[in-house]
Write a structure and sequence with these properties.
Helix content is 27%, strand content 21%. The protein contains 2 helices and 3 strands; from the N terminus they run E-E-E-H-H. A 3-stranded antiparallel beta sheet has the order 1-2-3, with helices on one face.
Length: 101
């Protein structure tokens, strides 16, 4: 029995590239997604984290997404605003008065 191997060009196609990104666990990640090499502006993509889950408070989801966008665009953790300077600061003050730790 004689087997001939044929040489072929292999083409590897990438579906998506994430940069920067955060991988929390399997199927839980967030980052800026690029789908083509010529794509100039990235798309914010989140899977399985609190920004896209339906069982999460919408205020938490919005605050987390805003913080992640700031972190990804500036690449500086100190640029992410503290809860005292966020738009949710009045709510946090009320919660601290009602539910002291």
């Amino acid at each position: 029995m004689h087997v001939e191997l044929q040489e072929r060009d292999a083409c590897v196609c990438l579906a998506q590239v994430y940069h920067p990104c955060v991988l929390l666990t399997k199927k839980r990640y967030v980052g800026y997604m690029y789908e083509t090499p010529k794509q100039a502006a990235p798309v914010f993509d989140a899977k399985g984290i609190e920004t896209v889950r339906r069982d999460t408070c919408s205020a938490v989801a919005k605050m987390l997404e805003r913080s992640l966008r700031i972190l990804f665009s500036s690449k500086d953790v100190s640029q992410v605003s503290l809860p005292s300077t966020s738009p949710f600061a009045p709510c946090l003050k009320i919660l601290r008065r009602c539910c002291p730790t």
